[in-house]
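Input record (Table S2, row 433):
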Amino acid sequence: MKFIVDPGGSLSGTIRVPGDKSMSHRTVMLGALANGTTKASGFLEGQDALCTVQAFKDMGVTIRGPIDGYIEIDGVGLHGLKAPEAVLDMGNSGTSIRLLSGLMAPQAFDTTMTGDVSLQKRPMGRVTVPLEQMGAVIESDGGKPPLRIKGSQRLKGIHYEMPIASAQVKSCVLLAGLYAEGRTSLIEPAPTRDHTERMLRGFGYDVDCENDVISIQGGGSLQATTLDIPADISSAAFFLVAATISKGSDVTLEHVGMNPTRSGVITILTLMGANIDVFNEREVGGEPVADLRVRSAALTGIVIPEELVPLAIDEFPVLFVAAACASGRTVLSGAEELRVKESDRIASMAEGLTRLGIETEVFEDGIIIAGGEMTGGQVDTFHDHRIAMSFAVAALRATGAIQINDCDHVATSFPGFASLARRVGFDIVEAFD
Ligand code: S3P
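Output record (shikimate-3-phosphate complex):
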């Protein structure tokens, strides 16, 4: 499927983007391992979260839904999973395979997990190294999936100083720590999204965060709960940039998750001159939530503060589009992690922006983007959902239509993107080959 997006137009309306992907994954994982039935609304019906749902169904967990964002999970307790009959297919989802590695390593049965072409290229050493220190036995294909995890290993708590800022690694180690003998603790090089810590507490499990050390005691239990998952700020980000760069726009995004470990995109856009009102701030199920009103604004290029990188890690593709529409240069460094996402996001965006006439200079850990006029043209997504949606946003300010090839992966995180985009004023069609 391709997107063909015509330029121009102003955006308006009030929308709620789909539920948070990180929280949807964790809801299924913790719900499956809890005692009792967990009920959640706002669940993301994207392919990534559905891979996690399928994996737990394959391990004997009864899950009803998701239907219209509502899901119920009959927890089997920490020791109630059954051996899956086949390989667990995690599709495109790095979060599923990395977090589940932590949960599979202490099980009584062997598990093999794999994924699609993109996932099979992504590094897994970052989770297998700490898990092996805990006593897990894992075989991989040179540090890449498939991962073959040997069951019946007794894990012990470790203290792990994480070499990279990654919430997936942190979460993997904490989830393994639920089963480990003794205490598992870790230190992050920089704060990353803390949904696992918050949600574990929501399921009644104590997680300590003291002097930058996050720790958990093995051997407890999880109690089922009821959750309302907010809209995903990473999906909202496309509309934040879209309304900012298209003239005469005024869009309100409702019920957006505003966890401070995720809201770097708002800080960065505001530093560039965006006009974003955060209102109706409230707390929903242990997570901050707000409504966001965004109106058109002229942007100026900035040097992005490095400490904001982990807090906006998934939003850089669309922030690069904002940079292309800004006056002057935007400089990003300290972002080498972008090279190991669903695609190499520095290379994918640089290639597409160059095709549209924008000057970029690429480094191993970042990029410089010179704001300028974007032409129409054809771009590739490299099987990456966020690259596809970012170029759909770019088309609003291009001088001609943009054809975005290979957009099927948009459904991994944002089912219904094109129709929601049309609703606020995008001129976007989905063309099937
Ligand atoms: C995620 C963490 C991030 C993010 C990914 C989801 C999570 O990855 O890019 O989309 O849910 O924990 P890293 O932790 O590898 O940076």
